[in-house]
Amino acid sequence: MAYDGTNFAGFQIQPNQRTVQGVLEKAINKMSKLDEYITVHGSGRTDAGVHALAQVAHFDFPHEISAEGMLRGLNSMLPLDCEITACEIVPDSFHSRFTTHGKRYMYRVSRGRYTNPFKRFYTGHYKYPLDIDRIKEAMPDVEGTHDFSSFVASGSQVKDHVRTIYEATVREDKANDEIIFEFYGNGFLYNQVRIMVATLLEIGNGRRDVHDFLRLYEVKDRSQARETAPASGLYLKEVYYD
Amino acid sequence: MAYDGTNFAGFQIQPNQRTVQGVLEKAINKMSKLDEYITVHGSGRTDAGVHALAQVAHFDFPHEISAEGMLRGLNSMLPLDCEITACEIVPDSFHSRFTTHGKRYMYRVSRGRYTNPFKRFYTGHYKYPLDIDRIKEAMPDVEGTHDFSSFVASGSQVKDHVRTIYEATVREDKANDEIIFEFYGNGFLYNQVRIMVATLLEIGNGRRDVHDFLRLYEVKDRSQARETAPASGLYLKEVYYD
User: Fold this and answer.
1) What is the pLDDT of residues A90-117, one digit of tens each?
2) Binding residue per annotation — B105?
3) How many helices (DSSP H) and strands (DSSP E) are in chain B?
4) A187: alpha, beta or left, given left = phi > 0 and alpha = psi -120 to 50?
5) Residues B211 and B161 in one domain
6) Which residues in B lie closer than 8 A to residue A84 (C-beta atoms)?
7) For B69-106, what is each residue's pLDDT tens digit?
8) ipTM associated with this complex
9) Which end of chain A is less packed: N or C, by CB atoms within 10 Å?
10) Is A93 part of any domain?
11) How high does pLDDT run on average in chain B?
């Protein structure tokens, strides 16, 4: 599914909050018309304001229905900021969270002196000068297997901070005056992408050494990677399964 | 100025409504710090939900201030969905509405089976099949001097419906699955662009004759051009002065 995260308090269901899981479960349970509550399992959470181009979720539906019928039915009931882009009937062994072996995130940085009104919810804005070549030089340091303890939000409960990033790229979209990051890895810690992007922008601005990531892997200290780029620039772009 | 029209009840100031003119006048009057109220004059109104890439407005400011100082000051006080993109000190003879001799509007049509969540406020969605060649064949009929009585919203007070369109184009943005219309003319009637776009889409869908515009100019009957494309796809792209 694709969703515009602007008006959602994140993916995960929460009481008295508008969440993606919440609107999905409401639609699905309306379709099932049974007393037994159907829970939706997402591939992972996304925070408030974070977008998805291809989030994946699964659920057990108690009636016979074609994938096409489910696609139509759900989209007819879902609000316009959440769209089911594809539906498939999967074997019972499939689990959207436990069987994924990778995710790809995109981060859009908009440039310019002031925030473009049309991009305020869809990019992170960075108004300071950037030397893109410095960022390009730093990107290979992001790839590989590292302890990302310096890049995890303090609220995280996860103990193991070792993750592998298979691919980390940056490109300039000159027509739109944007810089686009992509990160493909086996899994990401809470706020990891947003903290990495903020650090990469500081490298581009010259406030950090080009190879500061190598130092940050060593020190394992969240306070050293100070900033977190805004949620508005982050997109869950792909979730990988066998 | 550029503004995202989504959360504005249009350009023109109205009591108890959030309007572009309203937020502008609030910012300017805060800067002037005088009792005398400063009114902003726009080049024309835009409706609720209609966007602007380059709206123009003027006002008389009672203090000495550089254009650069005004640009900074206003942007620091304006909400993020309205951005002053340029500021100039103009002669007293300039009037943003009375001295304009043309405007350019753009209309973005998004395609696809369902509305893309990221485009719901920024395009008009058309899910039916379209033959772009039929639309291209119709575009020259839109250009020229015509009586646009069939294309004016019924609420309009304006009596003279003759306008000149210097240029009317359509192009496909295949990467984004959109169709982009542009109309450059000496002036536009209330809802004219949105009614013309809806009519052109019906031509593209085969529900109207390719040259139906010629008939519609003759009949001068609003009920014949039935639909009005949504405000969300419309952008005021340029306002022309000498």
Assistant:
1) 999 999 999 999 999 999 999 999 999 9
2) yes
3) 5, 11
4) left
5) yes
6) 114
7) 999 999 999 999 999 999 999 999 999 999 999 999 99
8) 0.88
9) C
10) no
11) 96
Put simply, the answer to whether B118 touches A80 (Cβ < 8 Å) is: no
DSSP string, A149-217: GGGS-TT------EEEEEEEEEEEEGGGTEEEEEEEES---TTHHHHHHHHHHHHHTTSS-TTHHHHHH
Angle at B115 between CA B112 and CA B120, to 5 degrees: 135
The residue whose two tokens read 């409706």 is: B47
**Residue A160 maps to which CATH number?**
3.30.70.660
Chain B residue at shortest CA distance from A76: B114
Contact (Cβ atoms closer than 8 angstroms) between residue B124 and residue B109:
yes
- What b-and-e string marks burial along B151-160, b requiring 16 or more CB atoms within 10 Å of the CB? bbeeeeeeee
* Beta strands B178-185; B57-58: pairing state: unpaired
- Same domain, residue pair A210 and A111: yes
Which residue numbers of B have CB closer than 8 Å to A's CBs? Answer: 2-4, 51, 75, 80-84, 114-118, 120, 122
Cβ(B13)–Cβ(B25) below 8 Å: yes
- Cα angle B104, B9, B78 (rounded to 5 degrees) comes to 80
Residues ≥6 apart with Cβ < 8 Å to B213:
B138, B141, B142, B199
Residue whose tokens read 């019972």:
A92
Count CB pairs under 8 A between chains A and B: 42
